[in-house]
Design goal:
This protein is of the alpha+beta class and 111 residues long. Helix content is 23%, strand content 39%. It is built from two helices and seven strands, in the order E-H-H-E-E-E-E-E-E. The chain has one domain. The protein starts with 5 loop residues before the first strand and ends with a strand.
Length: 111
């Protein structure tokens, strides 16, 4: 799934690797990405609610790897997400196919 661009602070495009979840650049990326994903999912998959999103900032380069957790009725799961931070300060992202589980049992289920 591909989505629109988001303008981020230019410093985010130049950020170094973050190991702590309290890194300001990491928190900004996660907040911006979650907000954009929520907008897209509200239109394309209204039953899906994003619950948490975590990202690992790149040590070099511009691609962050994220995991977006969600619930959808009796199902929970996650989307692997690749977020690209462009030199202009914009962000684009792509979500791969989700992995789903039955919320009560934790057993895998088709999405």
């Amino acid at each position: 799934m591909r989505t629109a661009l988001v303008v981020l602070p230019a410093s985010l495009a130049l950020c170094a690797a973050a190991t702590a979840a309290t890194n300001p650049e990491q928190l900004r990326l996660q907040a911006s990405l979650k907000a954009q994903m929520a907008k897209v999912f509200a239109k394309k998959a209204p039953g899906v609610k994003l619950t948490a999103l975590t990202c690992k900032l790149p040590s070099s380069g511009v691609t962050a790897h994220c995991v977006a957790h969600f619930t959808a009725g009796p199902v929970k799961g996650y989307y692997p997400v690749t977020a690209t931070i462009h030199a202009s300060g914009t962000l684009t992202w792509t979500a791969a196919s989700p992995t789903c589980f039955v919320a009560k049992t934790g057993k895998r289920t088709p999405c």
